[in-house]
Design a protein that fits this description.
The chain is an all-alpha fold. Helices cover about 85% and strands about 0% of the residues. The chain has helices at about 1-15, 20-50, 50-55. The N and C termini lie far apart (about 60 Å).
């Protein structure tokens, strides 16, 4: 089991040495996920006929 976990532990240690890089990766991933989520929610609202925000314009 230790042999299986060794590469994971090594990657974790490498990430721990560069916290700013980890935070940048998380920020970029979050931004990409938000773009996808917004598009998905737009499709869901249209499919369900829920257009609260369109009515405000």
């Amino acid at each position: 089991m230790d042999a299986e976990l060794t590469p994971i532990r090594q990657r974790r240690e490498a990430f721990a040495q560069d916290i700013p890089a980890v935070l940048k990766m998380l920020q970029e991933g979050s931004e990409r996920a938000n773009i996808v989520a917004e598009a998905t929610m737009k499709e869901v609202r249209e499919a369900m006929g829920i257009n609260y925000f369109d009515a405000m314009n």
